[in-house]
Amino acid sequence: MFLALLIICLLFLSFKFIITKKASCKVYLIDFACYKPPPYLKCSRHQLIKQARESGYFSENLLDLMKRILERSGLGDSTYLTEVFFKLIYDPSMEDARKEVEMAVFGSLDMLLAKTGVKCQDIGILIVNCCIYSTEPSLSCKIVNRYKFRENIITYNLTGMGCSAGLQAIGLAKQLLQVNRNTYALIVSTESLTENFYNGKDRSKFLINCLFRTGGAAILLSNRRSDHNNSKYQLLHAVHTNTSSSDRSYNCILREEDNAGKLGITVTKDLLAAAIATIKPNITDLGYKILPIKEKLLYLINRIARTLLPSQNIKALCFLMNKKTSCKVYLIDFVCYKPPDSQKCSRERFLKQIRQHGHFTEEILDFLKNLFERGGLGDSTYLSETYFKQSYKPSMKEARREVEMTIFGSLDKLLRKTGVRTDNIGILIVNCCVYNTEPSLSSMIVNRYKFSENIITYNLAGMGCSAGLLATGLAKQLLQVHHNSYALIVSTESITQNFYVGKDRSKILINSLFRVGGVAILLSNRPNDHNKSKYELLHAIHNNTSNSDRFYNCIIHEEDSVGIGGVNINRDLLAAAIATIRPNLITLGHLILPIREKLSYQITYIIRKLLPSMKFRQYVPNYGNAVDHFLPHVGGKAVLDDLQKTLRVSDEVMEASRMTLYRYGNTSSSSIWYELAYVESKGRVKEGKTVWQLSFGSGFKCSSVIWRAMKAVDHDVDNPWTDEIDGFPVIVDCGSIPVEFAPSSKSSNISSF
To answer: Which string of DSSP letters, residue by residue, matches 697-738?
Structure first.
């Protein structure tokens, strides 16, 4: 019996070794730098208690609790706090939080770049993680802007992912470095305390005040062979575990409001149990990678003897034996969220509602009315529930409800349609630009649908309207590393807490454009999903012009002169959009344009350079010869007008975008999926036809994704257009010249533009 067990163990280990041994490039840690705040930010335990007492927020009982926690915490008297804590009145602003983060990020980055001597233009990947602080444009864009990184740098901004986010960012960089060769990856990890000091009376939220301090780190990784000798370390393994599927683990650290509406992070008594329960499977997975063969054999023999060879072990062995290589990525299906009719809001009703709220003067209301009349939105877009109340006083609970309705509404339908089991999904990527919470939205989804503990999750924030296609590009790269797997992408936005109630006109535009919406998308690299998928993912192109101050500042989340937060949009938006889209189109053109189009462009370009006096007109490639459906982001009527003029495309080509703007408004990163649903519902997607999704947003960033239809795609019951598609297209009168569309035809295709 013992001999049989020993043979089984040896077979298991040999199969695991052979199959998991892949040809992957080595990843090195060249160097890292930790931020050390200036001495004037040092704060002893006694000084913290004194400062908290002088603030007037806390009773003596709560101050005694804080004192006891500090005495037992293990913290010394030379830790660092942010500047706002040393003021007589704790009244933090967005500018205070931004200053704290910039000091930590730039302080560590300046040291790292000086130490390593690496040029910013040579860095190909940038990953930034900051759990609670989130802004638009993102911190990653702020870094690109400050250090003038190149336009094609790959950037991701992770939020809400807790204290493990730094190592999760390392793991993400390791995976991206398997796909993007001969480059550097820069990782920046920090946290903001400025706006997150709890000043209420809930004892379970006090621990954060006592433990967390200012700090940050910048880490430089490389997969360049020439960096072998000048690196400090080689990265061998990165193992991540997620037990958010357990309600007990998910709720042990939770950002929420107390009974008085004050925001804080609740830490329950389940924290230690959750930590042990999560660390245990992580150590088990790590053991398979690093323990000597003797230790593995002893562990396996003991486990098999105790459990008498349960079927799950045999199943795991079969999975490893059948693991195959697949590089093609398929889109199995997607579902766009359609809110209930109770949330429909006409332009007239919206103006009536905000007049009742009492925040705006008649002059501002007239300005909003003009925006509505020229904005391209219809009278059936959706707002969140908080807008229909007598007064606009949104809470985090209401924002969470909006996000949950959108995410769960789309995910429930997608999982039902596809029949894919949640324990078979290996990758989860969630993007939501402005709304940020802890645990993250990705953890919330894992908790709701009980995903497996080894699922790879990333939560993107602050990355604007292009984040949905950025998430698609990230999933594509991860699916090159993790074979035989599914990737789930969820794109949404929250408008509940982001309605601007001030008097700055440059921040009013957001109020008139953005609406409730979201989408869930299921990708796969499993060869047997070829026949049941809707599309094959061909290309994902991203570029970033945040290195331009003009473009970086054209959309920015900031406070106005009286401290009211809002998203500022200036007149540089259109110029930024066109300037960012242009290099994206050039890169895409090299991949998809026929040789004739490429030659025509190059010949006219050379003639213009050699013979400038001839004033020869530059040839504009006809992308209609390479793609059948063009779906640009519905940024707003002015943006669509300018894009149409620049690309010289017809009204018919822009139909899906304009109708989406009219019916659903700007739903941020999910808008392009409502456009694809529109084209599907019209019956225009035929087998072999190509679809080009183009999105752009704050930073400034632009993303293009090219799909090829695997079959003819028609509408279904879960398509948000199904019940009303026969009523479209419509004539959109925007106060100037009406835009007319060609008649609808379910058999028509866009042949050129």
So the answer is: ETTTEEEEEEEEESS-B---TT-TTTTTGGG-S--B--SSSP
DSSP single-letter state for residue 482: S
- Percentage of the chain surpassing pLDDT 90? 71
Two tokens at 625? 């010869």
Nearest to 127 by CA among 461, 508, 595: 461
The more confident residue out of 250 and 390 is 250
Phi, psi of 341 (to 5 degrees): -60, -25
- Give me the pLDDT at residue 306, please: 60
> Does the pLDDT of residue 80 top 70, yes or no?
yes
Q: Is the pLDDT of residue 600 over 50?
A: yes
* Exposed e or buried b per residue across 633-660, where buried means at least 16 C-beta atoms within 10 angstroms of its C-beta: bbbbbbbbbbbbeebebeebbbbbbbbb
- Stronger pLDDT, 323 or 521, i.e. the higher one: 521
Residue 36 pLDDT > 90: yes
What the block records as the tokens of 152 is 């094609």
Would you tell me the crossing angle of helices 2-20 and 293-307 to the nearest 10 degrees? 120
Name 28's Cβ contacts closer than 8 Å, sequence gap at least 6. 221, 222, 223, 224, 227, 228, 231, 232, 233, 234, 235
**How does strand 535-544 pair with strand 701-709?**
antiparallel
Check: CB of residue 268 under 8 Å from CB of residue 255: no
Residues forming beta bridges with residue 158, ordered by sequence position: 129, 460
Q: How many CB atoms lie within 10 A of CB 308?
A: 6
Q: What is the pLDDT of residue 218?
A: 98
3-class DSSP state of 152: coil
Supply the mean pLDDT for the chain: 89
8 Å CB contact between 641 and 374: no
Q: Contact, 240 vs 168, CB < 8 A?
A: yes
pLDDT at 246 over 70: yes
Q: Which ranges of 557-627 would DSSP assign to H, the alpha helix? A: 573-592, 595-610
* Total number of residues shown for the chain: 753
Rounded to whole angstroms, how far apart are CA atoms 102 and 570?
Answer: 23
Specify the DSSP class assigned to residue 228: S
Q: Is the Cβ–Cβ distance between 48 and 75 less than 8 Å?
A: no
Instruction: Give strand pairing partners of 458.
Output: 429
**Could you give the CA distance from residue 104 to residue 189 in angstroms, rounded to a whole number?**
9
Prior bond to 738 cis, omega within 30?
no
Cα angle for residues 326, 474, 696 (degrees, 5° grid): 135
CA gap 310, 423 in Å, rounded: 19
Choose among 633, 635, 638: nearest CA to 739: 638
CA 443 to chain centre: 14
Q: CA separation (Å) from 301 to 73, 295, 307, 432? A: 41, 10, 10, 46
Type of residue at 652: E
Collapsed DSSP state (helix, strand, coil) of residue 747: coil
Mean pLDDT of all residues in 304-322: 45
Q: d(Cα 697, Cα 408) in Å, to the nearest integer?
A: 25
pLDDT tens digit string along 671-727? 999 999 999 999 999 999 999 999 999 999 999 999 999 999 987 899 999 999 999
* pLDDT for res 302: 65
Give the position of tokens 């493990």.
Answer: 164
For residue 247, give both structure tokens.
Answer: 């309600």
pLDDT at 745 over 70: no
- Which tokens in the block code for residue 381? 């877009």
- pLDDT for the residue 185: 98
Q: Are 534 and 518 in contact (CB under 8 A)?
A: no
Q: 184-190 and 216-222 as β-strands: parallel, antiparallel, unpaired?
A: antiparallel
DSSP 8-state assignment for residue 343: G
pLDDT digits (tens, 9 = 90+) for 492-532: 999 998 899 999 999 998 999 999 999 999 999 999 999 99
DSSP single-letter state for residue 601: H
Name, in order, each residue with C-beta under 8 angstroms of 258's C-beta and a sequence gap of 6 or more.
200, 201, 202, 205, 264
Read off the pTM: 0.90
